[in-house]
Design goal:
It is a single chain. By secondary structure, the chain is α+β, with helices and mostly antiparallel strands. 71% of the residues lie in helices and 12% in strands. The strands form two sheets. It has a three-stranded antiparallel beta sheet with strand order 1-4-5. Strands 2-6-3 form a three-stranded mixed beta sheet, with no helix packed on it. A hairpin with a 2-residue loop joins strand 4 and strand 5. The longest helix is centred in the first third of the chain and has 121 residues. The radius of gyration is 57 Å and the shape is elongated.
């Protein structure tokens, strides 16, 4: 009897402890359920705020990157334009330098051409030996002229043309019944062009026009007569 009673007491205590364990587990479960019941709205609010902040930060960053991109783009365009201008300027300077060097070399050759032409006008070969020499001379002159043509050199044709200070240099002026005033009467030294530009100005004689000589003689005659009259007038008064 005593043993049974002790067993019953122990069972009651165990049941009591079990009930406590069951109660504790049920209470924790209720707390979790309460948390689960309240968390979706709070979590959604937090997520919305985080999303807005993230979007705002991304927009600001995107705007900053776009500004940096525009700045770099404008710098690139400016540098590219400066480089293109530099390239064109260098190419133009090289072309100008090349033309200057070629012009200087060809200008030094032109007096030789002048001497060839003077010799051709003066030489009158009569014997066979002189004619053979003359043919050799003509061959050399032709080679020289061909080289000048290959380099773009062309002689000016000035006789009968109106005087142009950009192309011609007037050395003499004389009256002419054949040509009007400011027209070229004679070529004293041939001028040359290089690719359409003046390589050497032509030395020319320019017409003063018809009747200029007579008018000058008339003016000189009138001056002489006036001087004679002025000298005779005092003697008449005396």
């Amino acid at each position: 009897m005593v043993e049974n009673q002790s067993d019953n007491i122990e069972n009651k205590e165990n049941l009591t402890d079990g009930d406590k364990i069951i109660d504790n587990s049920s209470s924790s479960k209720n707390e979790i359920d309460e948390k689960n019941d309240s968390s979706p709205e709070e979590v959604s609010n937090i997520n919305d705020e985080d999303l807005k902040n993230t979007i705002s930060n991304n927009d600001a960053r995107l705007e900053q990157l776009e500004k940096e991109h525009e700045t770099l783009k404008s710098q690139y365009v400016r540098i590219a334009a400066d480089f293109e201008n530099f390239r064109k300027r260098q190419s133009r300077d090289q072309d100008d330098l090349k033309v200057q060097l070629v012009s200087k070399a060809l200008t030094a050759i032109l007096p030789i051409v002048d001497n060839f032409e003077r010799a051709r006008q003066q030489l009158k070969p009569e014997s066979d030996e002189a004619q053979a020499l003359h043919r050799s001379y003509q061959g050399l002159y032709k080679q020289l002229v061909d080289v000048l043509k290959q380099q773009g050199v062309a002689p000016m044709r000035v006789v009968g043309q109106q005087f142009d200070p950009n192309l011609h240099e007037a050395v003499l002026k004389e009256p002419s019944e054949e040509f009007e005033e400011d027209f070229i009467v004679e070529e004293l030294q041939r001028g040359y062009n290089l690719d359409g530009k003046v390589l050497r100005h032509a030395l020319v004689k320019v017409s003063m026009g018809p009747g200029k000589l007579n008018s000058q003689e008339g003016s000189e005659k009138d001056t002489v007569e006036d001087n004679i009259v002025s000298e005779e007038e005092p003697s008449e008064e005396n």
